[in-house]
């Protein structure tokens, strides 16, 4: 599988450079801080508020994690290697997407210490914790797909990072527009909001509806990325 | 036929970068793609390798259409772009393994393939080094190695010696020559001697069009069918020109007045006779002093200049070459 070769290569460049460690370290440090302060101040054996904050932190981390994925290839000319090799653009994009997802997944697995602590010293309700993690993962891969798309738009990494962050922010706050409108428009804006759907997960509610929504966002942006790369070659 | 282009055109916006090009390359041939900067060499190569599709026309690699069956076609191509497509933070060896992977070299064979190619191109001593720490010459070799991996029948090399020092240039050329027998090579350059040193055949391209296409040795012979001389003489323009034109064997005269009573002439004669003595006696008889008389060579360099400068004589020269073939 050619896609696996791309994935392996991207993982190597994450882990053979400081990039992955710095980002993972930053994410874990902040979320650890949230967890510790929350537990110490409230003495509640629950994780939902912490998981909520972790989504917010990943909003900042995701664009940085993904900004170089495609833009760097365009800048260094290595896209010429990839695109003239017997590999489809689909394989290239999926391989790169999965590499960032893998880094994110590993980071989440490390944070399993938090519920483990709660479990050892108390008896938390595991339902909302598990569903909260599912929401955290789904929203995270949606952020990654958006960041990946932004990375395909420009060969400047900084610009890609900023565009990625702006797009994520749009999805985050779009439900506010729902409050401005009424009727159908309100429903549409509300349904596009990451925020409301994540609340469901954190409250222990797993809707198929919400899962499909996040996966749709991922699929949409992956295909948009492929289109952008193809467009560039045809223009 | 390993590579076949038919009526290929590429338009960027409103500019025709490549204009209705057709040619084909046989198995094992080394073809030089020659032209000044901006002639459309790189664009043509990008289309051959499937990096970008042509606006119109078809390109076939080993029988596979690069647009219709890109994956099949690309299996037969190794491409070295103008700047080698290197991942600077990888070691030479890891990079070549990765390239082997995406080129579809089976995992079992990959190690020995990479080993063999590093040996062939001369990279064994830097195999563990990060590419960003390598000199230009070595980077170019890594680029070349990258193109050879997977043993593609067709190698497309875009200006493989540009920016290298003379020693490195020689080394790279030697490697290319060595690859010649096994692979079909299309190589672009704007350096003329490179073509005569490395290539079997030359395609000269200018402003997106093919202006000449022939075996390397024929191209210069074609133009050597005529001899050319430069003459500078003192005298009235009409008289000087008339005198020259009356000499036996003179085919063509181009004259211009340099200053008062000073005429510069470029004279062509048939190849089988040296007209210099006749010129001397004719001018002496008319009482016109010759200030300078020397034969003009026709190196490939001049062929090239002749073909790509925009003068009236341009079309005629192309015709000469085609007839001489």
Question: Can you characterise this structure?
Answer:
The complex is a heterodimer of chains A (235) and B (325). With 235 residues, chain A is mainly alpha-helical. Chain A has one domain (2-234). Helix content of chain A is 86%, strand content 0%. Chain A is built from twelve helices and no strands. Chain A has helices spanning 2-15, 18-42, 48-66, 68-76, 79-84, 89-110, 113-121, 126-153, 157-180, 183-192, 194-202, 208-234. Chain B is of the alpha/beta class. Chain B has two domains: 3-214, Rossmann fold; 225-324, 2-Layer Sandwich (Alpha-Beta Plaits), CATH 3.30.70. Chain B has twelve helices and 14 strands. Chain B has a six-stranded mixed sheet, sandwiched between helices. Chain B has a four-stranded antiparallel sheet with strand order 2-1-4-5. Chain B has a four-stranded antiparallel sheet with strand order 12-13-11-14. In chain B, strand 7, helix 6 and strand 8 (184-189) form a beta-alpha-beta unit. The radius of gyration of chain B is 25 Å and the shape is elongated. Chains A and B meet through helix 1 and helix 5 of A and helix 2 and helix 3 of B.
